Amino acid sequence: MSRVGKKPVAIPSGVTANVAGQAISVKGPKGTLQFTLPDDVGAKMEEGAVKIDPRSDTKQARAMWGMSRSILANLVAGVTKGFERKLEITGVGYRAAIQGKNLQLSLGYSHDIQYPIPEGIAIVTPKPTEIVITGIDKQKVGQVAAEIRGFRPPEPYKGKGIRYAGEYIFRKEGKKK
């Protein structure tokens, strides 16, 4: 039985949620987000909160119940506060800069990488070795951070590369002669 799905998602003041069949749209001060519920669950408005309920007692329905509730809570958090992901660049000569609508990454390759910034995402580089990704869609912010990290993941010997802020890199010892 899902414990996450049992708790209704409270809608704070300044945020409006609209449930129309399987579609849920949430509008707040930072923007509007939509989500289509899986067929295994349904939603209804109750006393300033949205309640998610399973339509059957199958394992799949219980899994979708908790997941849908979590996604809905992330939509509400996104339109009120937004989400942020920080990346750190480690390595001699490795740096990042914003050029127009692109993120330019110098990561030790023979060429600079031009990453086009997606719609709905804001990227800033307070320092050349730091990237801050912000947006209202948690999935999109995480996806952009993962794509940027994928250009040069941290390696275990010297720790060079792009890592999430606070990420621990297990360091290896080099070969002994």
Give a description of the structure.
By secondary structure, the chain is of the alpha+beta class. The chain folds into two domains: 72 residues, Outer Surface Protein A, domain 3; 82 residues, Alpha-Beta Complex (Outer Surface Protein A, domain 3). 20% of the residues lie in helices and 38% in strands. It contains two helices and 13 strands. It has a four-stranded antiparallel beta sheet with strand order 11-12-7-13, covered by helices on one side. A three-stranded antiparallel beta sheet has the order 1-6-5. Strands 2-3-4 form a three-stranded antiparallel beta sheet, with helices on one face. The longest helix has 22 residues. The model has no long low-confidence stretch (mean pLDDT 94).
Explain the layout of strands and helices.
Elements: E1 9-10, E2 16-20, E3 23-28, E4 31-36, E5 41-46, E6 49-54, H1 59-80, E7 83-90, E8 95-99, E9 102-106, E10 113-116, E11 121-124, E12 130-135, H2 138-150, E13 161-164
Antiparallel strand pairs: 1-6, 2-3, 3-4, 5-6, 7-12, 7-13, 8-9, 9-10, 11-12
In CATH, the topology of the largest domain is named Outer Surface Protein A, domain 3
Based on Cα principal axes, name the global outline. Answer: elongated
Main beta sheet strand tally, sense and closure? 4 strands, antiparallel
**Tally of helical runs:** 2
SSE order: EEEEEEHEEEEEEHE
Number of structural domains: 2
Oligomer: single chain
Number of strands: 13
Q: Biggest sheet: strands side by side, in what order?
A: 11-12-7-13
